[in-house]
Amino acid sequence: MRKTYSARAADLRPKWYVIDAEGQVLGRLASQIATILRGKHKPTFTPHMPCGDYVIVVNADKIAVTRGRLDKKVYFRHTQYPGGVKLQTLRQVLEGPHPERALIHAVRGMVMHNSLGNQLMRRLKVYAGPTHPHQAQKPVPWRGPQALLDEYLSEQSSASGEK
Predict the structure, then answer these.
(1) pTM recorded for the entire structure
(2) Which residues contact 116 (CB under 8 A, 6 or more apart)?
(3) All domains of the chain, ordered by start, with CATH?
(4) Which long-range contacts (CB under 8 A, 24 or more apart) does 62-68 make?
(5) Please, are residues 23 and 62 in contact by the beta-carbon 8 Å criterion?
(6) Which of 2, 18, 47, 157 has a CA between 20 and 30 Å from the CA of residue 96?
(7) Where are the alpha helices (DSSP H) in 39-89?
(8) H helices within 6-126, ranges in order?
């Protein structure tokens, strides 16, 4: 009888990935980041644990959007006071003091809205410029899920060959 694999906390070894957002489309990049944070690109994915990786995004102020969404996409918030509706277009957010908030908002909408989602969002580091303070973690550039699967399979074959 086969049993369903469930990773333990000791089995999880998160990596750090850096993604350059310059010229990439906002929604498509956000869905890739949400997948990395969740850990669905790994064969050791476990739904109830934060088994994903850390993601560093640089050049978030140079992100691209499609079909004129710079002026059409509106971010809505309310101050909880009467008449306290605050509206901001995507253009205003990207030209404002914190352009990285547009990407954070997009990724937040794609992860779970519970405590596990909060844990995953703490693993996301977004910077407007080309530099970041996480060199000590030795981040590697994100090459896509297929490259990771090939790397994982080669590690497994070399580990089984040593035994």
Answers:
(1) 0.88
(2) 48, 50
(3) 23-64+98-155 (3.90.1180.10)
(4) 62/21, 62/22, 62/23, 63/21, 63/22, 63/23, 63/24, 63/25, 63/26, 63/29, 63/94, 63/102, 63/103, 64/23, 64/24, 64/25, 64/26, 65/25, 65/26, 65/90, 66/25
(5) yes
(6) 18
(7) 69-72
(8) 26-38, 69-72, 90-95, 101-108, 115-121
Give which of 11, 105, 10, 34 is closest to 63, Cα–Cα.
105
Give the H or E element holding residue 152.
helix 145-162
Digit-coded pLDDT (tens) for 114-149 = 999 999 999 999 999 999 999 999 999 998 877 777
pLDDT in tens, 82-117: 999 999 999 999 999 999 999 999 999 999 999 999
Q: What is the dihedral of CA 47, 132, 134, 43, to 10 degrees?
A: 30
